[in-house]
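Predict structure. Chain length: 161.
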Amino acid sequence: MQIGKEKAVAIDYKLTIEGDIVVDQSEPGHPLWYLHGFGNIIPGLERELEGLEVGAEKTVTVQPEDGYGVRDDNLVHLVPKSQFGPGAQFDVGDRVVAQSPDGREMEARISLIGAKEVTVDFNHELAGKVLTFEIKVAEIRKASKEEVAHGHIHGPGGHHH
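Prediction complete.
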């Protein structure tokens, strides 16, 4: 069976960025499961896995445009400390959740702390990075009708969110 639309796929992977810095990897015996063709993983990786079979190994390089995007300086904001509430404590690298003007929650990282302002970065931490994945296809199966309808894989025993 080959990887294609509506297939449940399990991959073992290691993700590195420039300088061979390991950013993430699957644990032995615990591959990453995703539903192919539904945007569950970044587009550049999903495209390169199309057609592979169980046991296939591949190194995939993904440019920022097909990964987590190009860094956008418009997504970096100076926020007065007073907006965090009295006694708020945080460090550089902490994640915060902000509300957009239309009411959506958005995750950001604190990138700088000044005397009166905090710099909050809404870019994904891997935005602007070239990503290198070392992949091994561990398993492929036909997705269930429920998984296809929901657009994601369901865990053992059924539907979990």
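Summary: The longest strand covers residues 131-142.
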